[in-house]
Amino acid sequence: MRKYVVIVAGGKGLRMGGDLPKQFIPVGGKPVLMHTLNAFYTYDPEIEIILVLPPEHHAYWTELCREYDLTIPHRIAPGGETRFHSVRNGLVLIADDEGLVAVHDGVRPFVSQEVIARCYEAAAHYEAAIPVTDIVETLRRVDPSASITVDRSCYKLVQTPQAFSVPVLKRCYNREFMDCFTDDASVVEAAGKTVHLVEGNRENIKITTPFDLKLAEILLNV
Q: What would the pLDDT profile of 178-198 be if each residue is shown by its tens digit?
């Protein structure tokens, strides 16, 4: 079954406190985004990689690919107003109505090969699958008047890649954007589809802050 991955990299870098978008910041000698592409290429060199970037970043990415001699095959789609619109733009480049497609955050370079495989395998069986991890901290629900401890076993942390059958995801994205769409699973669930959970890996962090960059350097050297 043919596999695709839409890697969304639309970050502006604001939380990093600098002008360079977080997906382009070097970690371990090369930009974060290149580590992410390599994770999927290592999993399957035949996978079709679609990279979604804001149009104003396309020329810079081309320059980086030359500078770092990136030879991983991929196609580029233009980013949209929101993540929803960016994913939809990436799906346009998938002409087939068969196969499996995963959607992954460009700033999650530490997804394990095992998690990628679990997501695709579950999507092949259930048509929709996402990786999650347990919450180890105590959780409290807060309202204007008080707060209360809640049962953390009832909650999970959601990661990417989120994997689906191609026809399911295309059909679910053929609709108008809603504010409740925070990830691909929320789009699919809004269309009435059940999402299957698989085990993620705790190292699969989303790099969004300077602290995350420090942690990323540590993970690369473990």
A: 999 999 999 999 999 999 999
